[in-house]
Write a structure and sequence with these properties.
The chain is mostly helical. Helices cover about 55% and strands about 5% of the residues. It is built from 10 helices and 4 strands, in the order αααααββαααβααβ. About 15% of the residues are buried. InterPro entries: CcoP_N, CcoP_N_sf, Cyt_c-like_dom, Cyt_c-like_dom_sf, Cyt_C_IC, Cytochrome_c_Oxidase_Subunit.
Length: about 300
C-alpha cells in the first residue's frame, strides 16, 4: 500500500511539474529557460525514481526476511533466538542502526586510547541511503549537463537569467507607464519621451494646435498664457479628460497614460519657441509656462 502511495505521489509530482512548465511556457519563455526546466525536471524525476526503487527493494527484502525469519525452522536455531531477542529493539535504534545498551559489551573494540573505548556500530542506514543518493545525483547531473547537454551550464544560465531580467524590467516599466495619472506625472526632458510625444502630437493634436503648437482652432501652446493651467499635471489632465464645451476631445480612450504624459512633456518643451504666425494669447498668464523653474527644450 505504501509503495502504491509513493508511486502515485511520484506521478502526481511529475505531472504538477510538467503542468507548471506548460503554464510558464508562454511566448515570453526563452529556449534557455526551457532547457533549464528540462534539466531540472530530469534530475528530479530520476532522483524520485531512485527513491521509489529503493523503497520497493527494501519492502521486498523486508517481506522476504519476514518469510524466512518467521519460519519455525529458523526460530529453533541460535540465530533465530538472537533475532527474536533483537526484535525488541526500538524503532529509533533500528533507524540509526544502533544496538541496545545491554549489548554494548559485545560491540566494544579491543583497542583503547587514554581509557576511551570504541563501539563497533555500523554506519546508519539513512546515512548510507543519503550517500548513495548523492552518487546517483552526481551521475545524473553529469549526464544531463555535461554529456547530453540538456541543461545550461553556469555561463549560459547567467545569460538566460539576464535576458529574463531585461524582459521583466521592460514589463515593469510598461506597467509603471500605465499607472501614470494627472497627479503622478513628472516633467521630463528625456529626448526619447519628447520624440514619442512629438509623434503623437503631430498625428492627433496638430490639426487644432498647429504643427509647431502656434495655435489654429485651439490655443497657442508656446506662450505664457493657459486656459486650463500650464503645469505638466494640468496639461495631462486637459488631454486626458478634454474640455468638451470648448471642442477639446477626451483622449483617455485613444491614448495610453504613457502617451498622454509624453505629449504633455512635448507641449511643455514648446514653451518659448516663438513659432511664426502665433495665435493671440488666451487665458491666464503663468510665468515660466506653468512649472516654476522647469527647463524647456525644443525639438
Amino acid at each position: 500500500m505504501k509503495t502504491k502511495f509513493l508511486l502515485m505521489l511520484l506521478f502526481l509530482s511529475t505531472g504538477t511539474a510538467l503542468t507548471a512548465a506548460a503554464q510558464d511556457a508562454e511566448p515570453e519563455l526563452t529556449s534557455g529557460e526551457l532547457m533549464n526546466y528540462v534539466g531540472y525536471g530530469t534530475i528530479v524525476f530520476v532522483l524520485l525514481v531512485f527513491v521509489v526503487a529503493m523503497l520497493v527493494v527494501l519492502r521486498a527484502v523486508n517481506a522476504i526476511s519476514k518469510v524466512i525469519l518467521g519460519s519455525e525452522a529458523f526460530k529453533e536455531t541460535a540465530e533465530g533466538a538472537a533475532f527474536a531477542k533483537k526484535e525488541k529493539v526500538s524503532t529509533v535504534n533500528r533507524l540509526l542502526s544502533l544496538r541496545p545498551l545491554s549489548e554494548e559489551k559485545d560491540l566494544i573494540i579491543e583497542h583503547e586510547y587514554d581509557g576511551i573505548q570504541e563501539l563497533d556500530n555500523p554506519t546508519p542506514a539513512w546515512f548510507m541511503y543519503l550517500f548513495y543518493g548523492t552518487i546517483v545525483f552526481a551521475f545524473v547531473y553529469l549526464m544531463v549537463y555535461h554529456v547530453l547537454g540538456v541543461g545550461q551550464l553556469q555561463d549560459e544560465e547567467y545569460k538566460t537569467e539576464m535576458a529574463v531580467a531585461n524582459k521583466q524590467k521592460e514589463a515593469f516599466l510598461a506597467k509603471s507607464g500605465s499607472n501614470i495619472d494627472e497627479k503622478s506625472v513628472k516633467l521630463s526632458t528625456d529626448p526619447g519621451d519628447l520624440a514619442a510625444g512629438k509623434s503623437v502630437f503631430t498625428a492627433s493634436c496638430a490639426p487644432c494646435h498647429g504643427v509647431q503648437g502656434q495655435g489654429v482652432v485651439g490655443p497657442n501652446l508656446t506662450d505664457d498664457y493657459w486656459l486650463h493651467g500650464g503645469s505638466v499635471n494640468a496639461i495631462f489632465k486637459t488631454i486626458k479628460y478634454g474640455v468638451t464645451d470648448k471642442g477639446m476631445p477626451t483622449w483617455e480612450k485613444q491614448l495610453s497614460p504613457k502617451q498622454i504624459a509624453d505629449v504633455a512633456n512635448y507641449i511643455k518643451s514648446l514653451h518659448g519657441t516663438n513659432p511664426p504666425n502665433p495665435k493671440e494669447p488666451q487665458g491666464q498668464k503663468e510665468e515660466g509656462g506653468g512649472d516654476a523653474g522647469a527647463k524647456t527644450a525644443s525639438l
